[in-house]
C-alpha cells in the first residue's frame, strides 16, 4: 500500500485505502462515481487515483460515455497484475491459487496427497509451485503476499496453527515457515473464517450484516460468525468452531458416535461411504447423492440432514443471523433439498429469529476458501489505514 512519510498522513492513507477497497470489492468505478460513493471531492479523487496508479495498484481506461454531454469520467479498476497467493491444505490435497486484485483466479493447482501434509511439506509445495508460476502465469504479476486457509484454530496474533487435528498439526508456526521460504508476508487463518469472508463480500451473504457460515471439508466442519459486518474472533481468534459442538439428536438410532461432536455425525466420509465412493471432490459427491436410489444411502442423507437442521436452528436461536451459508459438502447436503432443510430449520427456530432468516449454499463453490485467504492478504497489505 502507498504510504507517505509525514506525520499527518493518517487521513490520506485512509482515503487511499477507501478508494482501492471500493474498486476492488465493488468493481470498476468512474472517478465521478468514486466521488459520489466516497464523499471525497473530485480533485481529491483525481489525486488519490494518480497515486494508486503510480504504485501499480489501479489502472484507468476511457469511459464508454457515448451520447453523454461533457467529457466522460475515466474508469478506475484494480490492476489485475496485483495478486495474492492463496493456499488450502487438507487431508487429501493441497489447493493453491493466485487471485488477482480484480477477483480473477489467474492460476490454480490441486495437488492430490496420499499422505498427510506436514507444515514443512506444505511450504515446500507452495514454494515449488510459485517458482513455476513466476516463469508462467505470474510472469508479469506483482505478488503481495500469501494467505493460508487451515482446517483448525489459528491464533490471530501471529498465525500459529494451534491445532489442525485431522492433519495432525499442533502449534505449527506456519506463518513464519511460509514467509521464510517464499519471502512474502503470510497471513494464516481458519478456513471457515476465510470462507465466511469470501461469501460475505462476494457471494451468498453479500449485503447481509449478520451471517453464520459453516464449512464442510475433508477435515470436518468449521464455522464463522459475522456480526454487524465484523468477523467474530473471540479472545484468541478461535470463535466459530460449530463442528465441535455436541449436536441435539432426538432419536438415539440416529447417533453414530458415542458422545460424538457435530462433525462426527454430519460427515463427508460417511456420505462418501453411503454412496459407494472411495473419494472425490464435492462435484462427484453431489452427482452421487442426486443419482442414488439405494435406500440405505438415502437414509444416511436424511439422518445427516436432520442433525444438521438442529445444529443450524441452535445457531439461529443464539445469533439471530440474516443468512446462514453452507459451504463444501454441507452445501451438497443442503442442495439435495434446500427447501426441505430450510423448513426443518425453521421448525426448530424461535419465530422471531426465523422471520428474516435465509438459508443459502455458498455461491463461490470451490473457490471460496482461496478467495477468502487472498482477501486476508489484500486487507492486511493493501488496505491498512494506520
From TrEMBL:
<dbReference type="InterPro" id="IPR036390">
    <property type="entry name" value="WH_DNA-bd_sf"/>
</dbReference>
<dbReference type="InterPro" id="IPR043129">
    <property type="entry name" value="ATPase_NBD"/>
</dbReference>
<dbReference type="InterPro" id="IPR036388">
    <property type="entry name" value="WH-like_DNA-bd_sf"/>
</dbReference>
<protein>
    <submittedName>
        <fullName>Sugar kinase of the NBD/HSP70 family, may contain an N-terminal HTH domain</fullName>
    </submittedName>
</protein>
<keyword id="KW-0808">Transferase</keyword>
<dbReference type="Pfam" id="PF00480">
    <property type="entry name" value="ROK"/>
</dbReference>
<dbReference type="InterPro" id="IPR000600">
    <property type="entry name" value="ROK"/>
</dbReference>
<comment type="similarity">
    <text>Belongs to the ROK (NagC/XylR) family.</text>
</comment>
<keyword id="KW-0418">Kinase</keyword>
<dbReference type="GO" id="GO:0016301">
    <property type="term" value="F:kinase activity"/>
</dbReference>
Amino acid at each position: 500500500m502507498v504510504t507517505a512519510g509525514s506525520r499527518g498522513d493518517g487521513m490520506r492513507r485512509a482515503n487511499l485505502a477507501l478508494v482501492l477497497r471500493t474498486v476492488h470489492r465493488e468493481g470498476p468505478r468512474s472517478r465521478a462515481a468514486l466521488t459520489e460513493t466516497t464523499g471525497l471531492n473530485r480533485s481529491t479523487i483525481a489525486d488519490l487515483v494518480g497515486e494508486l496508479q503510480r504504485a501499480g495498484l489501479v489502472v484507468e481506461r476511457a469511459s464508454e460515455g457515448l451520447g453523454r454531454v461533457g467529457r466522460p469520467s475515466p474508469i478506475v479498476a484494480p490492476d489485475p497484475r496485483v495478486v495474492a497467493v492463496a493456499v488450502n491444505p487438507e487431508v487429501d490435497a493441497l489447493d493453491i491459487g493466485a487471485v488477482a486484485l480484480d477477483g480473477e483466479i489467474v492460476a490454480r493447482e490441486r495437488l492430490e496427497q496420499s499422505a498427510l501434509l506436514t507444515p514443512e511439506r506444505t511450504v515446500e509445495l507452495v514454494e515449488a509451485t510459485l517458482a513455476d508460476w513466476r516463469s508462467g502465469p505470474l510472469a508479469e504479476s506483482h505478488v503481495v503476499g500469501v494467505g493460508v486457509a487451515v482446517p483448525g484454530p489459528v491464533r490471530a496474533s501471529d498465525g500459529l496453527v494451534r491445532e489442525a487435528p485431522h492433519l495432525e498439526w499442533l502449534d505449527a508456526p506456519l506463518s513464519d515457515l511460509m514467509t521464510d521460504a517464499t519471502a512474502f508476508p503470510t497471513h494464516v487463518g481458519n478456513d471457515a473464517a476465510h470462507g465466511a469472508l469470501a461469501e460475505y463480500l462476494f457471494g451468498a451473504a453479500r449485503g447481509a450484516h449478520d451471517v453464520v457460515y459453516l464449512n464442510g471439508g475433508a477435515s470436518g466442519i468449521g464455522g464463522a460468525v459475522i456480526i454487524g459486518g465484523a468477523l467474530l474472533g473471540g479472545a484468541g481468534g478461535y470463535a466459530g468452531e460449530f463442528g465441535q459442538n455436541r449436536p441435539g439428536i432426538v432419536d438415539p438410532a440416529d447417533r453414530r458416535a458415542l458422545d460424538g461432536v457435530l462433525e462426527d455425525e454430519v460427515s463427508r466420509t460417511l456420505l462418501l461411504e453411503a454412496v459407494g465412493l472411495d473419494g472425490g471432490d464435492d462435484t462427484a459427491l453431489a452427482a452421487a447423492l442426486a443419482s442414488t436410489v439405494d435406500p440405505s444411502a438415502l437414509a444416511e442423507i436424511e439422518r445427516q440432514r436432520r442433525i444438521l437442521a438442529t445444529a443450524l436452528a441452535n445457531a439461529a436461536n443464539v445469533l439471530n443471523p440474516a443468512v446462514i451459508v453452507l459451504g463444501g459438502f454441507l452445501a451438497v447436503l443442503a442442495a439435495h433439498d434446500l427447501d426441505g432443510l430450510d423448513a426443518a430449520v425453521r421448525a426448530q427456530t424461535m419465530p422471531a429469529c426465523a422471520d428474516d432468516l435465509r438459508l443459502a449454499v455458498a455461491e463461490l463453490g470451490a473457490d471460496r476458501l482461496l478467495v477468502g485467504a487472498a482477501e486476508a492478504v489484500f486487507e492486511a497489505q493493501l488496505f491498512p489505514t494506520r
